[in-house]
Amino acid sequence: MGVCASKSDPKKVKKQKPQSVTIPPQQTLTTREHKTTTIQFQEPSTIQRGTTSLHRASPNQSITPIQKVSQNNVTTPVQRVSPSNHPTPKTMIIQSTQLQERSRNGSMLNIPQQRLSTKPGSKSIQSPASRNYSVVSRQNHKSQSKTVMQHNETGQLVLVEMIKFENRSQQFIDMLEELRLDQMNIVKILDIHMDSHKRNHQVVYEHCQGGHLSKFLDSNQLEYQTIGSMFYQMVEALAYVHSLGYSHDELTIDSFSVFDDSSTPFIKLSEIRSIYQFMYPKNSLLYEPPNSPNHHHHHKDYKDHSKPQNIQTKNRSQSNDIWALAIIVLQLLTHKFPFEIEEIHKFKAEEVYAEQEQDIYPLLIEMLHHNPNERITLEKCLLHPYLIKMKQVQPKDYIMPFTNIIKCKNMTYLHKCLFRYLLTLYASDHLKVLNKLFTTADLNKDGSLSEDELQPLLNEQPQEYSLQISDFVNITQEEFLLFAADKQQVLTQDCLTLSFKALSKSQNIITPKLICKVITDCNEEQLQQDFDTYNLNYTVKFTKISYQLQQKEYETFLINYQSPQPIV
Length: 568
What we know:
Blueprint: E1 36-42, E2 47-53, E3 63-69, E4 75-81, E5 90-91, H1 99-104, E6 111-112, E7 133-141, E8 144-151, E9 157-164, H2 167-178, E10 189-195, E11 200-206, H3 213-219, H4 224-243, E12 256-260, E13 266-269, H5 300-303, H6 318-334, H7 349-352, H8 361-367, H9 378-381, H10 385-391, H11 399-407, H12 413-426, H13 428-441, E14 448-449, H14 451-458, E15 475-476, H15 477-484, H16 493-503, H17 512-518, H18 524-533, E16 538-541, E17 544-547, H19 551-559
Antiparallel strand pairs: 1-2, 3-4, 5-6, 7-8, 8-9, 9-11, 10-11, 12-13, 14-15, 16-17
Region (Disordered): 1-36, 113-135, 289-315
Protein name: Protein kinase domain-containing protein
GO molecular function, one term: calcium/calmodulin-dependent protein kinase activity
């Protein structure tokens, strides 16, 4: 995808005397929080300061100038395509405010990846999130208040952050509406609500049900191959942020969360506000590289984490993320921090890990150079032989999806319509994982899996399985998502009850005509044939044929999808 470039010349950067920026503890504004922005950067011989005006993107603007923070701490003006002009790829992302509409169009692929209810430059939804969601649990974090909530109609779990009305918070909301991150390993923002009564904004995020990465690490013994896959996902997420000219700068192990752990853990960057504003999370200093000015402060503050850390200086640099990410991966490998923080200047990765034979360590060493100019960029990390290998398919992740496909060989047309509706509505997270598996296996990107593409996936199947390639040749992406999905995720009593209510239009019966009103691309005549074949409350009254499926029969028919039998 090409990026439009402005024909106007960039503004000249006015040189000034070398000068450092000091931020007192109570002041948390950063360089991205002002309309006129001051960004510190460093060159080999001199330190300069560049000032660039940031302009809000209007609906008619396609280009917005921003400052790009380079790996070497050098700021260069770049052009960013306005979010309103991005083409929208097809993916499995579900948006809570549009679930009914998406389910009605029938396709599990025709779902835009970006949320559309709050466009750049538009206002937040003028109603509290509590009108659509109910509280499940609360998570309070110092300056942040986050609540796990569930959509009242769809049952989708989300994470809602409450942000009080104040200048700094409004700047964050404005920046969210200008720059919407759009990458599968970064949590999506589904909605932004505004509650005038409680005087706060409510940002609705995807919910990562696996919890923070540190919690997942404590309760799981991760295999070496699994760590490599997680490493690749984290690099992909941050490389995308860097490609936009931004950096995170406050990464910790809990900046990432587990979105789905049904096979290889699906990882997302879940703490994204630091990309827009410094948040000073707990223990973030432990992940700062040796060149950070904060390491010159009193080391006694590091050991006693109950004391507030004396944060005086914050510098934006993509090289900070590279160092922090390598430290996180070392924690996954060893279950401990690689050094005592007061000894950070003595820590030399090239010496400590020189004898390690595992192929992950050469890349980590390149990411842990003390000199930020020598650290490998994340763009180059993705081209490293180790991460290229980690990107490749892991056959074990396909065993259960292919097993689920075999279970669906007797599925009727009615089953296909109903499960497509249920999965799109209630198992969007699961579908995202399956979508990633399919796109990884589809090497020639033709939308189906050939025999050559299936061969490496089934060659290493365990002895207790006897999957045949002939059962899956030429399966399309749409078919894979429907058949490979774990149906138990949508056969819960809550899902069945809610879906029956939606499909029956609260009439306590489901008919082919009502199904077609909700799932618009279903063929009513084929539905009637299935109703007739399986005695789905088929009756004749006054010579008039009536197809009426009640809730009990509806649930029984769905649960018996592997071997459908006529209902007596």
